[in-house]
Automatic annotation (TrEMBL):
Keywords: DNA-binding, Transcription, Transcription regulation. The keyword Transcription applies. Residues 244-342 form the HTH araC/xylS-type domain. The keyword Transcription applies. PROSITE patterns: HTH_ARAC_FAMILY_2 (PS01124). InterPro entries: AraC-type_N (IPR032687), Homeodomain-like_sf (IPR009057), HTH_AraC (IPR018060). Pfam families: Arabinose_bd, HTH_18. This is HTH araC/xylS-type domain-containing protein. It comes from Hoeflea olei. GO terms for molecular function: DNA-binding transcription factor activity; transcription cis-regulatory region binding. GO terms for cellular component: cytosol.
Length: 347
């Protein structure tokens, strides 16, 4: 039986290695949850989880994890799900992380390749005179990602701990997720130096521990896995499909005042006339794309978050609440509050 059909969303353009979903489902089963119907309800096909090289929607995996956390009544589900993963479960990426000769090698590899197993919107590594700062986050279209971020951070710390031992406690962690009810597990599995509500996820590592040797390293295997990962190109659509690129950029930046044809053309390094022609050929326009993206995001924010109506209107780029209300009536035949009350479902 395949996945339950769910209406495609803009967030479906972001993907993650299917092996991650396999480990999540394995842990869920170990604590007595029937993960398969939950996965299908989130638009995932469990039969694809173990296929080598398979990729699935990042947003749907995040929904899967949040649903499992809610059903289990455990807002540290993501951290605990690390127990469902075997060494090297993420394939060449995992084996490279395991066999990096030094912590520096491990960190540099992470910075170069994280986006290839779970697509990020920010992934940067800066090594300064006193510390290394690694920052990452995901598209704002991925609305529910706390559990997924916890899992990924815990996996990274497992690799760091294998190299540093107890000195892993020197690593500072800043997570964008809300502060959990109980922070003890984050301090235990990550670091005592953990904080929440950050703008992006950040790891800060003192420079003097970066050259620590990995006692389990296999330099030859690390080189082979690194070379393999280098052959994988990060996905990029700007040059391949400018219409899709405009739609995605608009959806991620609805509050911006620079969503004009001229600005998009400049960003894509083409003339406004060329971009206009491409949009016309696709049967759309800048105005239509902005309106479509606002409608989709309005529906998701109203039904999937507890944001206030004024905050949603601002996030969608409306200058006044009345403008948001008029658009909602045109889209849904209801005011924003009526639409939320009549259609909202618990996750």
């Amino acid at each position: 039986m395949g996945a339950i059909f769910m209406k495609p969303t803009l967030a479906d353009q972001f993907e993650v290695a299917a092996g991650l979903a396999s480990g999540i489902a394995r842990y869920a089963t170990s604590i007595g949850l029937d993960a398969e119907p939950i996965a299908r309800a989130c638009g995932l096909d469990p039969s694809r989880f173990s296929a080598l090289g398979e990729r699935v929607g990042l947003d749907r995996v995040c929904r899967f994890m949040e649903a499992l956390a809610l059903i289990s009544g455990d807002d540290t589900f993501g951290l605990k799900s690390i127990a469902g993963f075997e060494q090297g479960a993420s394939g060449p990426f995992g084996y490279a992380m395991m066999n990096a000769p030094t912590l520096r090698d491990c960190l540099v590899f992470l910075g170069r390749n994280l986006n290839k197993i779970s697509e990020t919107s920010i992934c940067t590594l800066e090594i300064g005179s006193r510390a290394a700062h690694f920052e990452w986050t995901y598209s704002p279209l991925i609305l529910h990602r706390s559990q997924f971020v916890d899992l990924g951070t815990a996996q990274t710390f497992n690799h760091f701990r294998a190299i540093l031992g107890d000195d892993v406690r020197q690593v500072r962690v800043e997570l964008e997720r809300r502060r959990p009810t109980n922070t003890n597990l984050h301090k235990q599995l990550l670091s005592p130096n953990v904080s929440f509500g950050a703008p992006v996820n950040t790891l800060v590592l003192p420079r003097d521990i970066l050259d620590r040797s990995n006692p389990r390293a296999d330099a030859r295997l690390f080189a082979i896995m690194s070379q393999y990962m280098d052959t994988i190109e990060p996905r990029g659509m700007d040059g391949k499909d400018p219409v899709a690129a405009v739609r995605l950029h608009v959806a991620e930046n609805l509050a911006s005042d620079r969503l004009t044809l001229a600005d998009e053309a400049e960003r894509l390094r083409m003339s406004a006339r060329t971009l206009q022609r491409r949009l016309t050929e696709a049967g759309t326009s800048m105005q239509a794309i902005v309106d479509e993206c606002r409608k989709e995001m309005a529906e998701r924010l109203l039904l999937e978050t507890g944001m206030t109506l004024s905050s949603i209107g601002y996030k969608l780029g409306f200058s006044a609440p009345a403008a948001f209300t008029r658009s909602a009536i045109r889209w849904f035949g209801q005011t924003p509050s009526e639409f939320r009350q009549k259609n909202r479902k618990t996750m």
